[in-house]
Amino acid sequence: MSPVEHIKRFHRKFIYTKKSPLYVEGPVLPEQLANYDFHEGLSAFRPAPQQKQALISIAELPEGRIIIAREDNLVVGYVTFLYPDPLERWSQGHMEDLLELGAIEVCSAYRGLGLAKSLLEVSFLDESMEDYIVISTEYYWHWDLEGTGLSVWDYKEVMKKVMGSVGMEYYATDDPEITCHPANMLMARIGKNVPQSSIEKFHDLRFMNRHLF
What we know:
InterPro entries: AcuA (IPR024699), Acyl_CoA_acyltransferase (IPR016181), GNAT_dom (IPR000182)
Shape: globular
Protein name: Acetoin utilization protein AcuA
Structural class: alpha+beta
Oligomer: single chain
CATH architecture: 3-Layer(aba) Sandwich
Order of helices and strands: EEHEHEEEHEHHEHEH
CATH superfamily: Gcn5-related N-acetyltransferase (GNAT)
Pfam family, one: Acetyltransf_1
GO molecular function, one term: acetoin dehydrogenase (NAD+) activity
Domain N-acetyltransferase: 24-195
């Protein structure tokens, strides 16, 4: 494994609205998350109270990073970073310098304010993120097509723009979960301090099936 020290530097951005300012900040500590309420609209993956507990658990991990958007004491959006699931191919390289953007969610009542881009912007203000390869596996069945009214292809373009705002790029892969539908995609950002050996290992992970022939 590459020797990576999990340094987390806190950053904050203010977004001013007609109602009240929103704070986009993090990485936040588990005890901070515990003191916040979660908007009931943050339910894309599980009910908001359960999602709050899941984020607290991620924040407790050495590598775990949670960036939130909040109005006063109410969390209205978040993005998570952590090591890939042990059952996914992206964990098979045992890379300490590869993180997965596990989820990004903004409740519908606060969309249109650019919060998704702001969450990512604040995430990468931390210079220590340059020590990592950050991946995002985008599956169309996780997208809020009904709530946005977008087609799967339009939503894909939106995701590419949002992720691209912080330098994440599209990468080809033979991962069956991604290749099973043309809307799915792998995006990644390779930090400027990532060693070549890790970059090569990442490329090997992208095309693991080629070794079967």
